[in-house]
Write a structure and sequence with these properties.
25 strands; alpha/beta; about 35% helix; eight-stranded mixed sheet; about 625 residues; elongated; tt1808, chain A; 17 helices; single chain; Rossmann fold
Length: about 625
């Protein structure tokens, strides 16, 4: 039951009217009535109730829409807590804003709240500014802050029941010991709903991006670092009653908070240098704002599906346009994974992993499979999918910033990030092996990938081009001559063959239709049919990638790497499909999908087809 639901049950507030025209009546504030459909009103209503049940302030001393004496133009405080029953002596003034306001709007709210609270005829000790989950509390009980007002007078939380400010707001176990050694109640961080997590991530990114202060990918990279710190702080062993470190501390300047956060980051970076190699590059005050967005959330305990969808929805928008090449739509990924049916002991690779979508959905598939064998919450259930994540999932991404996103995505999903590397997947596998010994030829059972389309690999820039069979032309005698350039997606076909296990290794590959249809690409098709058994070709509609800024018509091909000396059988059957409905249209709107039907038909087709090992 929420605080507001308790307040309604106890008669402190009443909500009336139809859903689209709801009103809220604040009973303890002389039955003051406001529109409950206003997002800002929802924030105020919930916090009013929280003041009663969490902060232990008497309901009769909490008033809304309090007129500020002699302010011109007439101003009203959203909430005022009084220290007397007659409501003559203000104790704290609260300014409420809807969740998701900009940083500039939040700063304006701070000034409005401070102006109201410090007005000579009101003169409150504390100011609270709240915008959804983001809060700022200022201490004006001491007049000596001077020019450092709004900086050194920031406190962790509003005092409970007219007491002293506590050092931190959040403590493990929801209890802490005050200066007198008495145990008192305090909130613990908690899991959140998907919408709340999406809102928090967006607020963080907007704060870091700052309307151009950092580029969008750089801002997201910095956000990844801070989420990494947040999760590592949550998972750090601490006794019941000990505070978390990733939060605002009472009377701590932003520079000191930044020192604390950077120390946490450096500690984790030393333990796991593959995740992040550089330092946090965020202004101290900006960092404090990001901390205020995230401090109340327990990312570790938030449901994995909630985290997955929240991050995916956020990145869906982030990766459109210029970054569309790094993001494959969810329905296509899910379809590819279900067609391939990965097994618990398979080594799975995406050599062009982008933000990590294929890897994460392979992990989701394995987590679902774990539920078929074990009860959720048991150690066996956890080990089944977590061992797969940490030991069998691999990714390669050439772009450092996007590789960081993929690693962060894996960390949020708990986990498998140590086998995601930033490297050119088309470069020497020997070099890759030196970088991370888990990468080697002929190792992988399954490759799921959407390689970059249209990039050109030039021999002058990338001498490794001549090492590829598809990087050469051949005369009538079979003598090789290096090509001056080759399309990246064509080289990826050969690189996938390099990585797969002979005879059993399978792959699902997104390819532009030109590779499969253009007469100039016949040599590529010959390579595919010679080196692989072509299991299935699913032609995707034109809209498949339009939502992400790529209008190229593409298909998914499903292949198996042939054994050494295995010859293609001219009678090999190939499953073909061309769905018109794939779960979304060119604008990104949800539609019906034929993918499940195709999977069923493919399974029937496989029963009738001759097994490759026969």
């Amino acid at each position: 039951m929420s605080y507001l639901e308790r307040a309604i049950k106890d008669g402190y507030a009443i909500i009336t009217g139809p859903d689209n025209k709801q009103k809220i009546i604040y009973v303890t504030s002389d039955n003051h009535t406001e529109s409950y459909n206003d997002p800002e009103e929802k924030v105020r209503a919930e916090f009013c109730a929280e003041l009663i049940y969490e902060y232990d302030y008497p309901a009769n001393r909490i008033k809304v829409e309090v007129t500020i004496p002699d302010r011109v133009p007439t101003d009203r405080a959203d909430i005022v807590i009084f220290s007397d029953d007659e409501c003559k002596k203000p104790y704290a003034v609260v300014e409420c804003k809807r969740d998701g306001v900009t940083d500039a709007e939040f700063l304006q709210a701070i000034e409005q709240g401070v102006g109201n609270a410090t007005w000579v005829k009101l003169r409150a000790k504390y100011v609270v500014i709240i915008a959804g989950a983001t809060r700022r509390v200022l201490d004006f009980s001491d007049d000596n802050t001077g020019i450092f007002e709004r900086e050194t007078n920031i406190i962790a939380d509003l005092p409970k029941s007219y007491g002293k400010p506590q050092e931190f707001r959040f403590y493990k176990g929801g209890v802490y010991k005050d200066a007198d050694g008495k145990q008192k109640a305090a909130p613990d961080i908690h899991a959140v709903a998907r919408e709340d997590l999406i809102a928090a991530i967006k607020k963080c990114h907007n704060t870091l991006w700052g309307g151009g202060r950092l580029s969008p990918p750089t801002a997201f990279g910095e956000l990844c670092k801070l989420i990494f710190v947040k999760i590592s702080d949550e998972q750090k062993p601490r006794k019941k009653g000990e505070p978390y470190q990733f939060q605002i501390k009472t009377h701590e300047p932003s520079s000191k908070l930044a020192e604390r956060i950077n120390a946490l980051y450096d500690e984790q970076k030393a333990k796991d240098p593959e995740v992040f190699t550089d330092s946090i590059k965020v202004d101290d005050r900006v960092l404090r704002t990001v901390v205020s967005h995230l401090e109340a959330i327990n990312l570790s305990k938030t449901d994995l599906d909630v985290k997955g969808v929240a991050f995916e929805q956020f990145m869906d928008g982030f990766f459109k346009g210029d970054f569309g090449q790094y993001f494959t739509p969810r329905p296509i990924i899910e379809f590819a994974v279900k067609m391939m049916k990965p097994e618990h002991d398979w080594d799975v690779l995406d050599p062009a992993c982008g933000s990590g979508g294929f890897l994460l959905h392979a992990l989701d598939y394995m987590r679902s499979q774990a539920g078929d064998y074990y009860d959720a919450g048991t150690i066996e259930y956890f080990n089944y999918w977590h061992d797969f994540a940490s030991k069998h999932l691999y990714g390669i991404e050439i772009n450092d910033e996007i590789a960081r996103v993929a690693k962060m995505n894996m960390i949020v999903h708990d986990d498998g990030h140590t086998n995601v590397i930033s490297f050119d997947a088309l470069d020497s596998i020997e070099k890759m092996h030196e970088h991370n010994r888990s990468f080697e030829e002929g190792k992988f059972d399954l490759i799921l990938t959407n390689p970059p389309f249209g990039s050109t690999i030039n021999l002058a820039e990338k001498p490794y081009l001549s090492n590829y069979e598809l990087g050469n032309t051949y005369d009538a005698k079979g003598k090789a001559k290096p090509r001056k350039n080759q399309s990246s997606e064509i080289l990826f076909i050969e690189r996938i063959w390099d990585f797969l296990k002979p005879g059993t290794g399978k792959a699902a590959i997104v390819l532009p239709d030109g590779v499969l249809t253009n007469s100039s690409s016949q040599y590529v098709r010959d390579f595919i049919l010679e080196k692989f058994q072509l299991l299935a070709v699913v032609s995707l509609p034109q809209c498949a990638f339009a939502h992400f800024g790529a209008g190229v018509k593409a298909s998914l091909i499903f292949v198996r790497k042939r054994k050494a000396n295995e010859k293609a059988d001219p009678d090999e059957a190939i499953f073909m499909a061309a769905p018109e409905l794939i779960g979304y249209d060119a604008t990104g709107r949800k539609t019906d999908s034929q993918f499940d039907e195709i999977i069923e038909k493919y399974e029937e087709f496989q029963k009738d087809a001759t097994p490759f090992f026969a």
